[in-house]
Amino acid sequence: MAKPRVEPTHNTRRENFYATQIDSKHITHSLFQTHRIRKPLSDIHANHMYIDPHIHMVSRTTDDYARMAAAGCVAVTEPAFWAGFDRSSAAGFHDYFRQLTESEPRRAAAYGIAHHAWICINPKEAEDHGFAREVMSMIPDFLSRPNVLGVGEIGLNRNSKTELAVFEEHLEIAARHNSLVLIHTPHLEDKLKGTRLILDAIAAHGKINPARILVDHVEEHTVRMVLERGMWAGMTLYPDTKCTAARAVDIMEMHGTERIWINSAGDWGHSDPLAVPKAVVTMRARGHTAADIHKISFDNPRAFLSQSGNFSVNAPRPTIS
Amino acid sequence: MTTPAGTPPLDRKTLIDLGFIDARAKVLDIAAFLDRLDRAPGADAPTDFRVEAIRAALLIALDAGPTRAERILKSWSDPTTEPVSHADGKAARGAHPQHKA
Predict the structure, then answer these.
(1) What is the largest CA-CA distance in chain B?
(2) pLDDT tens per residue across span B62-101
(3) Same domain membership, residue A139 and residue A34
(4) pLDDT at B4
């Protein structure tokens, strides 16, 4: 096959655009005619570091860690969430919190990935208020563990009164312990109403600096209200129920790159642990600069997460357990 | 000159080259989904609000106004403002029965 004609150019955007069209022969051919490159693909793609700030690695295989590391992942943060079934006792949560703070960091470190956790009872299991309080009573002990960043992912699921009460109690725990907060916003038709309820509850509580709160799973209809209140916004890259990579890039184009990040929220459901590096490919294809790509996939999550002294992009030395 | 907020780095023609095949496939999938429902037993049953939500969203997608994606998401959203007394199951359905076009 003939090699691409190489001519000097300073148009990095178009170089990157060309470079990412490797899965569409037609478009590659079209662009090849009009956009000239001066770097081989391997140079353009090599050594991109990223952070996946929301992923549920307890649901993923060790092979996923290997693939993420190969794609450039250096750190993950893992919020406590629903296991796909309701746990039958608070002791089940205690074991889960130990998994998040003892076992999972070791598994990640084997691939050079720094692992961090958030602790809470997720809103899907918060409808029993007494049970939720029993679980919440364990949170303070875990907040002092070395890989824990704060309280999360708290929030609402179906926007019920009990979910809201449990959310407010989580906020109080975070305020008392000066913890960062990671918030889950509801799914699909419940998201708009739930996001408004969450933001109003935070404002009414009033004890946590908005800059220490990240509201996750924003979409086109909720991102503006989050950013306007001074909080951080997370865009979750899901195949069908949250943001696709293309829409996440649209949102970035419309709302800028300040206080916003992308994550895979990879879990046991329909999700992709490589969604962040794939979104990076989409950003390149859409002509975004290397600086903007680095900001949204690395600098921004590092800036927010570093407000906790426990965050680091340097994984501890792997240990054999 | 400062680029207006919301302006993509790529021009319209390049974005069409980049996204047309994907959009074409998605339009066909929606059409085929509606065809499938028409062929299925039970086609004379009352209309499902979720299908109506999709039909209403398609009208938004075709209008000339801005922020179509945002308006479609809002049209599918629960229009109420107060917390519900109890969670009605764990899973959302994708559109609210009281959705508005």
Answers:
(1) 59
(2) 999 999 999 999 999 999 999 999 998 899 999 998 866 5
(3) no
(4) 65
Which of A218, A221, A252 is the best substitution to test chain B (most B C-beta atoms within 10 A)? A221
* B94 phi/psi in degrees, rounded to 5: 105, -25
Provide the ipTM. Answer: 0.93
How confident is the model at residue A318, as a pLDDT? 76
Q: Is residue A317 part of a domain?
A: no
Q: What is the pLDDT of residue A321?
A: 52
Domain match, A128 and A211 both:
yes
* Cβ within 8 Å of B, A 124-153: 124, 127
Is residue A278 a part of any domain in this protein?
yes
Do A116 and A19 fall within a single domain? no
**Residue A221's CATH number:** 3.20.20.140
pLDDT at B6: 84
Chain B residues 53-72 within an 8 A CB cutoff of chain A: 67, 69-70
A319 in a structural domain: no
Rg from Cα positions in chain B: 18
Answer whether B90 sits within 8 Å of A162, measured CB to CB.
no
Residue A273 CB neighbour total at 10 angstroms: 25
Tell me the CA distances in angstroms from B32 to B35, B37, B47, one per residue in order: 5, 9, 17
B92 touches chain A (CB under 8 A): yes
pLDDT of residue A29: 33
* Minimum CA–CA partner of A29 in chain B: B17
Q: Where are the domains of chain B?
A: 11-42, 46-81+94-101
The segments of chain A whose pLDDT lies below 70 read: 1-47, 319-321
Same domain as A156, residue A276: yes
User: What pLDDT is attached to residue B101?
Assistant: 56
Q: Name the domain count of chain A.
A: 2
From A303, A291, A305, A280, select the one nearest A45 (Cα to Cα): A280
Nearest neighbour of A189 by CB, restricted to B10, B77, B86: B77
Residue A5 structural domain:
1-46
The pLDDT of residue B67 is 96
Copy the structure tokens of residue B42: 């039970």
Contact A271, A257 (CB under 8 A): no
Please tell me whether the overall predicted TM-score, pTM, comes out greater than 0.80 for this model.
Answer: yes
